[in-house]
Amino acid sequence: MNEKTVIDFLSIQNRWWYKKSEFPFNKIHTFKRRDYYYLRKSVDSEEATLIIGPRGVGKSTVLFEIMRNLLGLPEVPPSNPKTFTFKEEGLDGKRIIYLIFDEPMLKKWSILELLSSYCKFVLGEDISALQTKIYVFLDEIQNVESWGEQITGIQNLKYPIKFFISGSSSSGMLDEAAKAARRIQLYTMMPMKFSDVLRLRFRDDSKLVCILNNINSFRSKILDAYRENDSKEVYELFVKLYSDLKFWQFEIEKCFQEYMIKGGYPALLNEPDLVKVSAILKDTFWLGFREDAINAKGVGDPDGLFNLTSYIASISSTTANLSSLQKNSLPGANSDTIKRYLYHLKSSQLATQSMLFLRSNKTSDIFKIYLSDVALRNLLIGRLNKLLLDDQKEYGKTLETLIYDHLYRLQFKVLPNASLTYWRDNRSHKEVDIVLRINGKLMPVEVKKEDEPGIIDVPALKAFCRNNHVGTVVCGKKLAHQDGIVFLPAWLFTIIC
Percent of the chain at pLDDT above 90? Predict the structure, then answer.
């Protein structure tokens, strides 16, 4: 191992070792995602914090935000860091190290070798006798072979080291994370939710930001009302929120239509040209898709995997089974291949399945399938443009995909014991699009693209709600309470998720 070469390289990546004014403020933003505030709390935990998610969602940005906070640097980047007077706060810069493993040179050495050299030549300490804790940030970890075993091995040595690790979601990432399951705190980052996009777009409007920052309190009250099967209370709470947001309704609805097309990838939000948006997303998607497919175990055909992904995009929010997926995307493949490819897509946070809700112990091989991100779906079906708003069939699929994604994240982050399914009425053969189970209570949700649907348009939801459940219809504009069912504009419902 050539220690000089390592130190030369690391000193470029970690310039704050010498002057805090050299911190790369261009890597952070004035606006802070909710993910940052959540992950910042884990700096004192003994477990390594692993952040996974699709490429381009902002994982590296959050790492730099946490480093900035540890260094005691201001949240708002100074206009000229070179001349800015920094307060003597925060950690000694040398006790924070950042390694990004997209550099081939770093892959020649183990993580322990790199950290040992850093401790010896930068800190002047032996890694086995560190005087105080060090904070180690490992980016693009999916490029490191057997990283899970390496992290576990270092943690077993009981050194005072706090790890923050990030990597792109894939089946291989989850397999490695499983090797260090007891030593890792897993956090999944996805593209920004609609409420976060609003917080970003209107960040200079203190009154609206205050309302959006209190959404968690509103959400808790609404979920309590759903648990109590109190449809009137659910409705009145949404009316209160609608009233609070009324002044900004036009701008929020406009932002929602844009979100339906572009989704929540940070790099896309400030680009008004949808042709450029498509190019950016295509480059980001393809960069990781083929690389992750090639490296994933059990995926031997990246082009076949892309065909499956494109087909799922085209049918997102509709029912399928393994046989129909195979027939329409990978003819000639067997069911085991479809299962492996589907597992990879779900592990990569690119697709999700919703199983049929059954009150008995029966099973079904039919499921609903969703592409996880609306922008990616629109890209793959040729609707990452304003044509989507006039294409009622595809608009309806994208709307349900968006609502499912937000409910999926709601149950993933806020309601960890919840589950999502769908239900079919055997009499009418109609479906309830989404059924959220909350601690034994059921929350059925129907998604309608129309502005003003009526009770007659949701027979399956009406049938499901005979068992004393609060039904919800997410639609274009209607805000009403009829026959125990709550009708809500999609933008208003999505803010709560």
Answer: 70
